[in-house]
Design brief:
By secondary structure, the protein is of the alpha+beta class. The protein contains 4 helices and 7 strands; from the N terminus they run H-H-E-E-E-E-H-H-E-E-E. Strands 1, 2, 3, 4, 5, 6 and 7 form a 7-stranded mixed sheet that branches.
Length: 140
């Protein structure tokens, strides 16, 4: 009986965690702030955008929405992902992605003429530095 109980506990310890929704990721990152929370995050891409050399995949149409989870893809990962999935900025809208990484709450400062206004809001980001962190799931 003790062996069966130990095997059951060991089996539970190796069972992969279920993917987090964007809302779960936002709450977990807020609770962990200023640290990140690691996991697998899954959602349908509703919008994309660029800021400098980073490409963002967003769970909401408006990236400023407090429920939004943004996946920030660094330049080193973009080329291989585009070879695998086609143009990321347009080709992934409406597709469901699974991302392994760490969700972190990021402070976004409002500026006026390049100077901070003292007003800000938070976004939740997962930074992707390697292509293996992202998988585009089959259409259901």
């Amino acid at each position: 009986m003790a062996i069966a109980g130990a095997l059951l506990v060991a089996g539970c310890a190796t069972t992969p965690r279920q993917a987090l929704t964007p809302m779960q990721a936002v709450f977990a990152a807020a609770n962990a702030a200023p640290h990140a929370t690691s996991g697998v995050f899954e959602f349908k891409v509703r919008a994309t955008g660029r800021d400098g050399d980073r490409l963002y995949l967003n769970s909401e149409a408006d990236y400023r929405d407090q429920r939004n989870l943004s996946i920030a893809i660094l330049p080193d990962a973009q080329g291989e992902l585009e070879q695998r999935y086609g143009p990321l900025a347009k080709g992934l809208i409406g597709r469901t992605i699974s991302v392994r990484g760490a969700a972190r709450r990021v402070r976004i400062n409002f500026t006026d003429g390049g100077a901070p206004t003292g007003k800000y809001y938070y976004q939740t980001h997962v930074v992707v530095g390697t292509p293996s962190q992202i998988e585009v799931l089959p259409t259901r």
